[in-house]
Amino acid sequence: MTDERFEELMRDAKKTYRTPPTADFDSMWKSIEGAYFGGAMGQSTAHHNERPRGLQHSAMRWVGLAATLVVGIGIGRMSLRLDHAAPTHPAATNVAVQPDAPKSDTAMARPYELETSQYLGQTAALLVSLPTEVKTPDAQFAARAADLLTRTRLLMDSPAASSPSMHSLLDDLELVLMQVVRLQGSSNRTDLELINRALEQRDVIPRLRTAAADISAN
Amino acid sequence: MSEPDLIARVLAGDRIAARELYDAHSPRVFRLAFRLTGDADLAREFTQDTFVRAFGQLARFRGDSALSTWLHRITVTVVANAMRKVKRFRERETDLEDVHPITSDGAGVDPVLRERLHRAIDGLSEIYRTTLIMHDLEGYTHTEIAEVLGVAEGTCKSRLSQARAQLRAALADLAPEFG
Fold first, then answer.
1. What ipTM does the predicted assembly reach?
2. Backbone dihedral angles phi then psi of residue A99, each to the nearest 5 degrees
């Protein structure tokens, strides 16, 4: 009897607990396709959903980061060779693939620093402008947040997050940006208050500015 | 076309094959993500993340388990990692409950008891809740859950038993016979 009643409750929960709504699988697919395959198809299917745009940007961003890295390494190695080798050395365009080319950590880090510096500035600008009054951020604001969220995640997986302090900052920013993205279409005053409180408690904006200043100083 | 053939074609850059795999598996991935989060936006985001990661790591899929099991393992990982951050941020569990209002479907069950049960499920620790949701609400077998979560089947059964015992205890004051 007892078990029967409990089983009845569980059967009810199967129908009533977090019942999955209908989903727009085509829209989700367009985002996945854009992120995984990239290319014209992914970009030509711009959609009303802001998150997919963020995902589409992720593939582009990876390409950008990779390209920046390659160029940065090339430039760094080339400049080192120019410092140490004869100025008439003809193989300037080949140094990046020479196995015995001098290695420079700063040259490796610089492309990430540029990207990170730009990202930190844009994130600080967005968070500072986060409405303190209770109102719903517009779609453009949410789209910027979604883009920054994607970049946060990419940076977290990159050498830019190798220092514990930067990793911790990116971790907090991911969390805050995730909540900012979700504010779109919400009128929940509590959500906004929680974001503001988290920003204050975790000193996010001062840490952002410090990190940006450190990178600039380098 | 068989699933291994589809996988090979996806790895070769075939979008149509990728779409075919997505069509076959996305509804269940989304269902699982929604059951675990209770939030449609998050479920959508996590479903997308699951497939982007899955396609990115597809070359590493050895076929030791079913593709669905592998996909659901990614889903559970994606959801668990992200929800820890969301919960840490939200501070109050009640906020999470607000995003999945109880539906009126399922006449015959005392609404108060139902709501209490839902809250009790929310209050389970992650390992118990995930096991309970997958088994009792989504119909996964213990074998499937064990593969997805990477635990022994016995562990999975034990977790389900613990989860159910905790639910009964949570309902005891409303339904004394559960105590």
1. 0.83
2. -65, -25
List the alpha helices (DSSP H) in B38-110. 40-57, 67-90, 93-98
What is the C-alpha separation between B111 and B106, in angstroms, rounded? 9
B contacts of A168 (beta carbons < 8 Å): none
Contacts with A, B 44-83, CB within 8 Å: 44-45, 47-48, 51-52, 55-56, 82
Q: Which tokens hold the place of A38?
A: 């990239």
Domains and CATH numbers, chain B: 1-101 (1.10.1740.10), 102-174 (1.10.10.10)
Is the Cβ–Cβ distance between A74 and A96 less than 8 Å? yes
Please report residues of B whose CB lies closer than 8 A to that of A24: 44
What is the pTM (predicted TM-score) of this model? 0.57
pLDDT attached to residue A142: 76
- The model's pLDDT over A49-60, given as tens digits with 9 standing for 90+, comes to 333 333 444 444
- pLDDT average, residue stretch B142-163: 95
Nearest to B48 by CA among B79, B69, B20: B79
What residue has token string 């990692």? B81
- How far is B7 from chain A, CA to nearest CA, in Å? 14
Q: Answer whether B83's CB lies under 8 Å from B49's CB.
A: no
| A36 Cα to chain B: minimum distance (Å) | 6
User: How would you write chain A as a 3-class SS string?
Assistant: CHHHHHHHHHHHHHHHCCCCCCCCHHHHHHHHHHHHCCHHHHHHCCCCCHHHHHHHHHHHHHHHHHHHHHHHHHHHHHHHHHHHCCCCCCCCCCHHHCCCCCCCHHHHHHHHHHHHHHHHHHHHHHHHCCCCCCCCCCHHHHHHHHHHHHHHHHHHCCHHHCCHHHHHHHHHHHHHHHHHHHHCCCCCHHHHHHHHHHHHHCCHHHHHHHHHHHHHHC
A40-95 residue pLDDT tens: 333 333 333 333 333 444 444 444 544 444 444 444 444 444 444 444 443 333 33
- A1: Cα within 13 Å, side-chain hemisphere: 3
Q: Which pair of structure tokens corresponds to residue B93?
A: 């569990």
Pick among A6, A8, A9, A188 to test the B interface (most B CBs inside 10 A): A9
Is there a contact between B114 and A15 (Cβ–Cβ < 8 Å)? no
